[in-house]
Amino acid sequence: MSKGFSKEFLWGGATAANQCEGAYLEDNKGLSTVDVIPKGKDRFPVGLGKMKMLECDSEHYYPSHEAIDFYHRYKEDIALFHEMGFKCFRLSLAWSRIFPNGDDEIPNEEGLKFYDAVFDECLKYGIEPLVTITHFDVPVNLVKTVGSWRSSKMVEYYEKLCKVIFSRYKNKVKYWLTFNEINMLLHLPFIGAGLVFEEGENEEAIKYQAAHHQLIASAKATKIAREINPNFKIGCMLAAGNNYANTCAPEDVWRSIEKDRENYFFIDVQSRGEYPNYAKKMLKRKGIELQVEDEDAGILKNNTVDFISFSYYSSRLTSANPNINGNTEGNVFATLKNPYLKASEWGWQIDPLGLRITLNSLYDRYQKPLFIVENGLGAVDTPDENGYVEDDYRIEYLREHIKAMRDAVNVDGVELMGYTPWGCIDLVSASTGEMKKRYGFIYVDKDNDGNGTLKRSKKKSFYWYKKVIESNGMDIE
After folding, report:
1. What domains does the chain contain, in order, with CATH numbers?
2. Which of 50, 73, 84, 444 is the most exposed place for a label (fewest CB within 10 A)?
3. Is residue 156 flagged as an active site residue?
């Protein structure tokens, strides 16, 4: 079956403030957690919260400081998105651009004006902004003063941010996501939630307490949004991809269910409005007693999301046997090598059918509209003298994933709102801090060490994706 998508389907692309904006202290912006995460050998220890780095030094290179300078080039970039035919552009707000310290009395007007200008530019071209409120972004001051999301004070600061942005942009933005890849705080706690650990602390207990605070904040944001504009659509966001069992041994199958639940837990709460029993039992087994307020249960129950958004890059493979190893390189989610799949240059296993499986798993579980807000192939691109890249490998990856998406919609009946491939313009990699790990339809002239003109040029995939959007997903060859 090769039917396309509904005429309302939101084709577009996705970015994040911390990976594209740059201008990291311009116009009164405060220091953000991502601004102190360097490229190089210290990146993972800092991202994991194991190495405390809350200031910048002269010994490291910090890719977010300039990124791809979207802050000064947004008009040019959005014009290119329009040329491709985007109906939707997913972007995030830099919290410290709006509240430089996080706990400021009044917001920074220059930061608010910047996003006004970005949204106006999108709307000029009929592009619907899809805004992530927090995408791996915490003002460093809040890490220093309250310990970031380990503290319930963060919920108040987040509420204040939401009230400001929902009121300010209520006639410009319809679609909102509360937290990017909320489950990532279990895997990269400083990147996901600004958590830094001291020697001897119970890290797991801190992570789940921070998760609770984010879940409450997400529910409160949903409540505030509906009060300010009942037409808002509020979604949550999961780093998705099913865990396959390594063999048909029941122990391996059970292990795959447990691994999936580690991630589903967050969306179970945001979509269903309560902690699932398996999560309550898991926390009890681990001896983790969450600090919970009396009103928390009601807040979660009465403020569930309208839709489920997720990122999908690859599936994962797991075994109950602790001696089986051979984990793939480069991915923050540990996984065994799947002998039936090819892998990217960074060890991410390429599994288009896995996207259809993920879509069905999520839709069966929640019966709410889904939105694929990240998908794509990180690869080394070699441009010619004009900056043109013949990225057939990227086209092939996206084509096969769009076919799987089409099957999920037309054959399986999954309700899908849109598709915004990740890094529609080349940007800094969140995991490695590299520029050479490129996802975009648009090439940006910059290398891993920050050298380059920042000139934008169209790749072969730019023209291919334009054709896909024009045909509403029918012409993907």
Report:
1. 10-470 (3.20.20.80)
2. 50
3. no
* Residue in the block written with tokens 């990146």: 43
Kindly state the tokens that stand for 69: 């300078």
| pTM for this model (two decimals) | 0.96
Angle formed at CA 431 by CA 64 and CA 369, multiple of 5 degrees: 100
- State residue 53's pLDDT score: 96
Strand partners, 177: 132, 235
- The tokens describing 362, both together, are 């999520």
Q: Looking at 225-376, which runs of residues are DSSP E strands? A: 233-240, 243-245, 307-312, 316-318, 342-343, 349-350, 370-374
Q: Which position among 110, 374, 385, 477 bears the catalytic label?
A: 374
Q: Are 98 and 137 in contact (CB under 8 A)?
A: no
Contact predicate 3/45, CB 8 Å: no
- pLDDT tens for each residue of 249-288: 999 999 999 999 999 999 999 999 999 999 999 999 999 9
Structure tokens at 213: 């605070």
**What is the rounded radius of gyration, in angstroms, for the C-alpha atoms of the chain?**
21
What are the distances in angstroms from CA 289 to CA 153, 267, 274, 281, 333?
19, 20, 16, 11, 26
Query: Is 333 in a helix, a strand, or coil?
Result: coil
Q: What is the pLDDT of residue 2?
A: 54
Return d(Cα 69, Cα 74) in angstroms, integer.
8
User: What's the one-letter identity of residue 457?
Assistant: S
Write the CB contacts of 257 (distance below 8 Å, at least 6 apart in sequence). none
